[in-house]
Amino acid sequence: xxxxxxxxxxxxxxxxxxxxxxxxxxxxxxxxxxxxxxxxxxxxxxxxxxxxxxxxxxxxxxxxxxxxxxxxxxxxxxxxxxxxxxxxxxxxxxxxxxxxxxxxxxxxxxxxxxxxxxxxxxxxxxxxxxxxxxxxxxxxxxxxxxxxxxxxxxxxxxxxxxxxxxxxxxxxxxxxxxxxxxxxxxxxxxxxxxxxxxxxxxxxxxxxxxxxxxxxxxxxxxxxxxxxxxxxxxxxxxxxxxxxxxxxxxxxxxxxx
Length: 257
Hints:
The protein is mainly alpha-helical. The protein has a domain at 115-254. The protein has 9 helices and 2 strands. It is globular and about 55 Å long.
């Protein structure tokens, strides 16, 4: 793949960073275009975006440290020196939800109503950001003999040396496609909410269920270390199962207004 997008002398621009930033901009751009539907003025909109962004960063880091507690306890992982490395996506989702709830309470807004819009924007941006993982060689898949297997031969790729040059499942691409499909599905649910056919919050719960199911299944194609999980499940599979269960319970009881 292409871990470095541009390199001029000692300056190096990582493809991963560009695509992840582009994913954030895509999601925020979609929300900004739909700000009137969200019934937020410009100041309130950007305040909410900043709160959610901060919550995602904090939550993603906290869950990463929780998953890698053995490395933290042994000193192999330093909580300050290694602050820029390692974030868990589900932790970011939980952190952004907590920040969103706090912001809504402070600003007398409905979290459930606004969450349906973020159910579209989040997987939309995530679909683009995951391509950065593919370019960098992180979150690599397990070996495969399928014709679309990818080989990481660039010395700057983050893939394990044991998997370098070996055809691997393009796990980030699988997840990118799943996120794009979830964004489309949640946009349909959002229209149902706005038409009064579904209860506010249906879009967000649909996203949790869809992404949880996709992540639970797609994790079977991962070939990298995912940390200590629960029983035979990886950490992301365990959280994905909980997300599916919560979404299913909510839809059975609360989907209709």
